[in-house]
């Protein structure tokens, strides 16, 4: 065998010595040219319908189809065997003949010469069994560059199915996610443009990887301050901040922390007594003890039941009144008991039965879940944070998923069905005796196949979803723990490490990979406990930083150098208003005073709908947190705020009737109740001016105006 290898090497060496060019491979040498030049992109010939009658596979996923498109389709008109230089496949991209895509490479360039040589050699396809690209790697995978105008060379290496490796640096396509931070040449040379962070996508032959690039203006600070750390979250965040020359903001005040942690954990504001007790306490461990108390409260479960209800779209219109309420109550009970999240997910994934007796069966009973492909799309997004939707019709443009991957995953749900009755809550989710998923391209049945894994054989008497649930929730699954970790980080810290939170892919790397991995591992090691993960994040100094920026972190929005201000959820806002006024709200079908956070999604409420509560039948997505004109008008003159501020018998009347309280004391109580801090001297003076008017009615109206003003302030409307 050694002798044969030596002869092959000797033959290649002699051929090179004699000046013979090695025969080019269509797959390894020609297809990458069309990806690198942009011809196989989704906005060009790689689109689902191609361009101008010429279609290539997206980013070279399917080279056999590309060969047919170039050599065989339209009677082979794109190849000129008698005069290769006159081939359309050369004339068009060099703009030697009119071309809608303009010039993609020049006559005489390496790309031009490679295609020309391939045509001269007969324009053949690779022989059967020829090696295919198995893995693609870019180096460095992560780097911090100092100064503007700094240059650095990326390199790309491919490993093939026969074990050989090749330098692909000049064959791959480089695309920065943010071109304002760095620009990159076709050969992979980076040049910095501004301070910031970005990722550079590297693609060829259907493979994609990313290099994460950070740009800082100055070398590391010699006098970087020593910042206290509470746990490993701080270690991993502050280590990166130091590398970026970003100093974290100081620790939040007791007032600031108290309001923040109450809203984030139980969705409510602290009472005046709770605020007084916490602020006056001199216990050095009071923050940690408060966190433990809040996580044990039933309202903590209500907050996360609402978050999951958003994710699972448990709108009443989709599932019937009883079904939606049953599922919400199951979510709340599971979270309150700290049911392990892997068990939690398994019970939902394998749910079946009559809706009114099996709360988890309602998970599947939404309009979008009617077909296996819809189920596959939603399950991957909900539990894995992976968006497969693009691979339904064609190979994914930004990730490795192929159409075969999508339909193989959908096949896990091929036997699912819904048996409807006149009453929605009498319906049931069932497993059919027979059921198959047809691949739209081959028109043939396709069997279940795990993402990035093997196929699964489904026996007639088993529910293959149980195997899928075991695979999804396995400790080694690369997405499951990270997906829920990312969602919890976003809830508490204002931004996920991966954004959007359900878009995990190679070309969308996390802002802090080490932190994501460490939190996910800690989550698994501690029994998939949502309570434990919340406790770890809340006890970190990172969570407890002030939201006030300093000169080094003013523009940072991804590295957790300060607490990121976020708008209150609709339920938080509604409950905060009623807490401050002491006027209970009445929601249809629920007892007077029931918290908005405790009401299943879909219950009618104009206020909650106006301020962003998820509506039924919406696709899976995050809530829209951007303010709009309708919300502004509702805060200025809406019925809810008007009723809450003018209603008799609430806190305002109690405070005004207390002879021991001065007008200034009442103003202080309003501020402490609403924004959890003492008003400053200027705020007190401004609030007291209208109160100089005579008459009890005028006095009350003046306090109502103070309430209205505070409710309309950014300080009240946001968590900070």
In brief:
41% of the residues lie in helices and 10% in strands.
Notes on the protein architecture:
This protein is α+β, with helices and mostly antiparallel strands. The model is unreliable at 1-18 (pLDDT under 50). Among the domains are: 23-120, no CATH class; 133-216, Immunoglobulin-like (Sandwich); 340-472, no CATH class; 568-719, no CATH class. A 4-stranded mixed beta sheet has the order 2-10-9-6. Helices cover 41% and strands 10% of the residues. The chain contains 28 helices and 17 strands.
The fraction of residues in strands falls at 5-15%
Strand order of the largest sheet: 2-10-9-6
The number of strands is 17
Structural class: alpha+beta
Oligomer: single chain
Low-confidence stretches: 1-18
How would the blueprint of this fold be written?
Blueprint: H1 2-17, H2 26-36, H3 63-76, H4 88-91, H5 110-120, E1 133-139, E2 142-146, E3 151-153, E4 155-160, E5 165-167, E6 173-176, E7 182-184, E8 189-192, E9 196-204, E10 207-216, H6 232-243, H7 254-266, H8 272-280, H9 286-295, H10 298-312, H11 316-319, H12 321-336, H13 341-349, E11 353-354, H14 372-384, H15 403-410, E12 416-419, E13 428-431, E14 437-438, E15 445-446, H16 464-472, H17 480-493, H18 513-525, H19 530-539, E16 566-567, H20 570-581, H21 606-610, H22 629-637, H23 639-646, H24 651-657, H25 663-674, H26 681-688, H27 696-711, H28 714-717, E17 718-719
Helix pairs in contact: 2-5, 6-18, 9-19, 10-12, 14-15, 17-18, 17-19, 22-23, 23-27, 25-27
